[in-house]
Amino acid sequence: MSALLSKTAEYGIRAVLYIALKQVQKKNLKRCLTTRDIAKDLKVPYHFLAKVIQKLVKAEIIHSKRGRDGGFILKKAPEKIKLFDIVVALEGEDLLKGCVLGLPNCSDKKPCPVHEYWKNIREEIKQMLSEKTLKELLNGEFKI
Q1: Residues 107-117: pLDDT tens digits?
Q2: Name one Pfam family in it (predicted).
Q3: Domain positions in the chain
Q4: Which fold has domain 7-139?
Q5: Each residue's pLDDT tens digit, 48-60
Q6: Pair type for strands 62-65 and 71-74
């Protein structure tokens, strides 16, 4: 998926999955997870991840707790968070609307050479992201 999604979306999905996994493993997670812990365990840049996490907090996918025992936990149950929610929070609504080649004038009326192929693939990707929840991924073979 990383070939289609930016590092922002990739790190965001991984971070939310990580938080969900920790919450499931330690039922009723008492200690919030810090950005530093998440970045270290996922082996991603701390400062970049901090910006990604703030977008996820603003989108109300994760909850931020301030203070000495502060950090992050999921705002909703894993079965209520779709991958599409995470991607849209980080990439915006237009992510799967544009031309795969980045051509500004590509449209149904003036298609680029791969327009029809991409249009079908784009819809399949959007459907998959809209249907898959964090819980489904956690029940699968998710490994960090």
Answers
A1: 889 999 999 99
A2: Rrf2
A3: 7-139
A4: Arc Repressor Mutant, subunit A (1.10.10)
A5: 999 999 999 999 9
A6: antiparallel
